Amino acid sequence: MSLTYTQYVTELRLLAASTTSDADFTSNLPSAIDYAEMRIYRELQLLATIVRDSSANATGDDRNFTLPSSLGRFVTVQSVNVVTPVGESTTTGTRNALMPTSREYIDFSWPDNEAAAATTIPTHFAMITDQTIIFGPPPGDAFNVEVVGTIRPTPLSVDNTTTYLSLYLPDLLIAASMIQVSAYMRNFGSQSDDPKMAQSWETQYQTLFTSANAEELKKKFVGMMAA
Q1: Spatial separation of the C-alpha atoms in residues 18 and 110, rounded to whole Å
Q2: pLDDT value at residue 22
Q3: pLDDT of 189 above 70
Q4: Distances from the Cα of 143 to the Cα of 2, 62, 70, 71, 149, angstroms
Q5: pLDDT digits (tens, 9 = 90+) for 8-59
Q6: Lowest-pLDDT range of 17-26, 112-121, 192-201
Q7: CA 36 to centroid of chain Cα atoms
Q8: How many CB atoms lie within 10 A of CB 184?
Q9: d(CA 176, CA 12)
Q10: Cβ–Cβ < 8 Å for 220, 71
Q11: Long-range CB contact pairs, 16-23, < 8 A, 24+
Q12: What's the CA gap between 60 and 75, in Å, rounded?
């Protein structure tokens, strides 16, 4: 089973016993989607959220580099590759994988911002902020840079009618959404009308998460021995 946005809303209304005239329920939908999607993306670390963005170049004699954002804002960086020779892209050039390290190491090893030569290729990188890194040594020219990492996909909405979660993990998406909806409906504390509602959906979410995570680990070949 997969869900479109309209089907998702209909299913949520049925489970929450809400009517189409319930304006408060409708206004809460973005919060339910945000809670569900952010929780799943953080906990599952899906392969579907990993991208390779090579839409930016380094600047010669400048160790500072802002992560590209043409495919979305990076949440985590997994690797950085500098493409050589200068002027070539990932399809025509050679990737030079950089080693992640600390800012202190780069500051100590390459204290100058100027490259030793125009042909100097960085070998290390360090995170400075969540969207900026520094190279060590500084690049000698405007090499193409490929960043690999995770992004947050566009949320499910009336304008974005399907997502990876709605197509391939609709049961987990519904369960996570209903935890938030239960909070909205029942304020799921000890003094609420039905504190077990959110607890039941949390239990269901954990059951579904376990199976979804097992499947995701298989995609990454985690725990599998090479033949």
Answers
A1: 62
A2: 87
A3: no
A4: 42, 11, 18, 20, 19
A5: 999 999 999 888 888 989 999 999 999 999 999 999 999 999 999 999 999 9
A6: 192-201
A7: 14
A8: 19
A9: 11
A10: no
A11: 16/178, 16/181, 16/185
A12: 26
For residue 182, which of 12, 2, 7 has the smallest C-alpha distance?
12
Burial zone of 145 (CB within 10 Å; 0-12 exposed, 13-18 middle, 19+ buried): buried
Contact 146/83 with Cβ under 8 angstroms?
yes
Q: Which of 92, 126, 120 has the alpha carbon at shortest distance from 108?
A: 126
The answer to whether 149 touches 50, Cβ cutoff 8 Å, is: yes
Task: Tell me: pLDDT of 197 over 90.
Answer: no
3-state SS, one letter per residue, for the chain: CCCCHHHHHHHHHHHHCCCCCCHHHHHHHHHHHHHHHHHHHHHHCCHHHEEEEEEEECECCECEEECCCCCCCEEEEEEEEEEECCCCCCCCCEEEECEECCHHHHHHHCCCCCCCCCCCCCCEEEEEECCEEEEECCCCCCCEEEEEEEECCCCCCCCCCCCHHHHHCHHHHHHHHHHHHHHHHHCCCCCCCCHHHHHHHHHHHHHHHHHHHHHHHHHCCCCCCCC
